[in-house]
Amino acid sequence: xxxxxxxxxxxxxxxxxxxxxxxxxxxxxxxxxxxxxxxxxxxxxxxxxxxxxxxxxxxxxxxxxxxxxxxxxxxxxxxxxxxxxxxxxxxxxxxxxxxxxxxxxxxxxxxxxxxxxxxxxxxxxxxxxxxxxxxxxxxxxxxxxxxxxxxxxxxxxxxxxxxxxxxxxxxxxxxxxxxxxxxxxxxxxxxxxxxxxxxxxxxxxxxxxxxxxxxxxxxxxxxxxxxxxxxxxxxxxxxxxxxxxxxxxxxxxxxxxxxxxxxxxxxxxxxxxxxxxxxxxxxxxxxxxxxxxxxxxxxxxxxxxxx
Length: 307
What we know:
With 307 residues, this protein is an alpha/beta fold. It folds into two domains: 2-201, Formyl transferase, N-terminal domain (Rossmann fold, 3-Layer(aba) Sandwich); 207-305, Roll (Methionyl-tRNA Fmet Formyltransferase, Chain A, domain 2). It is built from eight helices and 20 strands. The strands form five sheets. It has a seven-stranded mixed sheet with strand order 5-2-1-6-7-9-10. The protein has a five-stranded antiparallel sheet with strand order 14-17-16-15-20. The radius of gyration is 22 Å and the shape is elongated. The mean pLDDT is 95.
């Protein structure tokens, strides 16, 4: 089967590599245009673009998915199937209808749960015990197409968005190739989603990452893990933001919410329930460091209050 792959971030690379290693032919890769990154704001290709370059695959970087030149080239390529993983732009009807088998999408949830941009993050923040990945037929409605294959994955107590997404990306890549194999063989039966059960996973904003220390420790733990590594959970100390990595829930409940006690080997912060022990923090303009090391650099203070 002749496949066009559309994806942009690191998360999509596992599926692209799995397709390249399969019996199917990847005739082109569609990705977002180069973006300015880092302090120098230099233009950099997407992670998917870099992999496509390494393999000598034709790269298409339309500014819009309905760009006339892009659409013309897609018609010339005449792929049998389009495969999408975190491309980052909506595909319009004309493009969806172009391949004989349409387009399929790998989404990191068990649909219809957590449709949208941040399914892994929202599952962690909500305290879900189970998540997974789904491959579905792409339609114009958000993540609403018929499901072609699903896997499930248990969420561990120390999972962050980074660790969980890495596992789902690997497992989802195998699922995607399996679905493509069955589409090619003509022996797969799509299952319509129950739209009444749908939940939605809006993109996380940086402002939403602020920690509310008046919440229970378990909710704060989930919040931080859901925002790790990006866009990051943070708290206010005076006029500065301090990025906060995953915490450990302590047995004690001695401190008022947001009050931090700096001890020799740890930093405790009060919540609505148990205190939490900070793991790593990143003060504004500095590198990530152990919370205890950060605490020792606060000029001998034994207690600070986070906002």
